[in-house]
Structure formats: C-alpha cells, structure tokens
Amino acid sequence: MEVRWNDTPRHVWDTAMRHAAWQQNWAYGAALAAMGRPVHRAVVLDGGEVVGRAQVTGRRFLRWIDVATCTRGPVWAGGVDAAMRREAYRLLHATVPLSRVRGVFFTPEAGAEEGATLRAARLRQVMSPYSTAFLDLTAPEDALRCAMRGKWRNRLCRAEEAGIAIAVAPATPGEYAWLLMEEAEQQRRRRYHGSPPAFVAAWQGRAGRGDGVLLATATRAGERLGAMLFLRHGAGALYQFGTTSAAGRAANAHTLLLWEGMRFLRRRGVERLDLGGIDTVDLPGIARFKLGSGARVRTLCGTWC
Fold this sequence. Notes:
Blueprint: E1 2-5, H1 10-16, H2 26-34, E2 39-46, E3 49-61, E4 65-71, E5 75-76, H3 82-95, E6 101-107, H4 114-120, E7 125-127, E8 131-136, H5 141-146, H6 150-160, E9 165-170, H7 173-190, H8 198-204, E10 212-220, E11 223-233, E12 236-244, H9 246-250, H10 253-267, E13 272-277, H11 284-292, E14 296-299, E15 303-304
Helix pairs in contact: 2-8, 3-4, 6-10
C-alpha cells in the first residue's frame, strides 16, 4: 500500500468525490488555501488500485505548533475492508507533507464501528462523537412529506396557506451578503460557532461546474420573512444557515423555506441534503426543527489522533 500526495487533477478528484461530504470537496480546500491554510490531497493505492482519498488541511497554533485535520474523510472505495483502512490511516498519519506537524486528526464519515479500526491503527479518540442530520432526496415528494413529524408537517401546511412566496435560485455573493452579516451577528449573539460566513463566498468562487450557492427567500406583501442558504456540491448539498423575522416565525416561514429548498434541490438531481449538526443540549430548538423535517440522524465516530 502507498499514499501519493498532490498528484490528482481536479477533474478526477471532483468526479471521484461527487458523493463525499463538503469538507472533502476540492473547492473547500482551495478556499482554505486562498486564506493561507496549507491543503494536501492524498490518494491511497493498494496494488495499483485506488482504495481511498483524503483532503487534509493544516493549521498553526501558538505560532509554532502545526496540526493537520481530515474532516469527514478519508473517502473509501467500495469493498475496502478494516485491515486496509487500518493500514491507510497509519500511512496517511505518517506521510502528511507538513513541517513541524504535531498531530494528524481524523474525523471519519463513519459510525462508532470504525473506532475499532482506528484503535488498531494506534490512534486515540480526542473528541466525542458528532451527530448530524441527513435528508434522502432520492425519495418521492409524497414520501418525504410522510417522513415528517406530525407537528412539523402541520406547520408546513399552515405556511403553505399563509400567502408566503418562496423563491429559490442560484445567488451571487452580492445577493446574499446581507444574510452573511445576519449570520455573523447571530453567531455572536447566541454564542455558537459555525463556518465563518465570509468563507461561503470564498468557496463559491472556486466551486466546480454545477456547484454553488442557492438562496431561498420568503416574502409576503413585499416584506421579507426569512431566508436560507444552501451549498450544492456534487450529488450533495449542505444547509449552511438561515434567518427568520418575528413575522416569519409566526407564519412558519422557515418550515416552508426548507421544504421548497428540498424540492428545488431534488428536481436538480441532488441526492442528499446535510442539515448539519444536532445539539439537543445547547440548541434544542434547532435540533427539533431539523429532526421534525424527517431527517435521519447519523452519529459519527468522533475525532481521532
């Protein structure tokens, strides 16, 4: 088995990683690189066959400590067994092309069962498991509605009858700059951390063909009630963030925004919508909203080093 770093053309990477998480998207790494972060892409081969790929990003702390992170990766080819994954983790850990690296952190796109493989690779868990919510958009629309929780579906029905107009379309940074500012203020006010809002535009400027930012807006009688931002990448999409006014909350605009966003993405061939993390302790209202939509929770195996 061997690891080759930074010799994969972008078009090959984009095709191979079409179903990967956003953090393994080429444009994600390119945006970080434009911000001064080191980014390296690995291909793991066994007998000349590709068995896995991983995008690794670097970060410096205290001016002299370098760490490398592989978030929601590596991405494995079909049929790669635990023994091969174990060896791949060890090789990736040992060969990351960063000087003065003090740690290589993996947060795989896998459940708790991957822990045994990671321990066998002599890695240890350093962060607890992370749960995220997914919507399978390959299902028919009536099946998606049936999967919703009753109260959530009832709110959707009321919103559909409330005279709210929903527009979903690709957007330029200038068209969603106001939403980025609102999200930055919301993060400050509610004391939570997400992707820096400005990173969205940096990613969009490097997104592949067919990928990019979708803005969903809700209005009624000329008044903006709320908006949502979705990032399309390959066969997947990510709900990035959204905002709703007091009038929008009273009219359940956020529920209708998500539903129309789901429909728009589904019609354009997106297979999976990632609604992001589930935090029932600090953000229970947001967790209930995501789960009520019919999303399924997937708990990943945590971060290992």
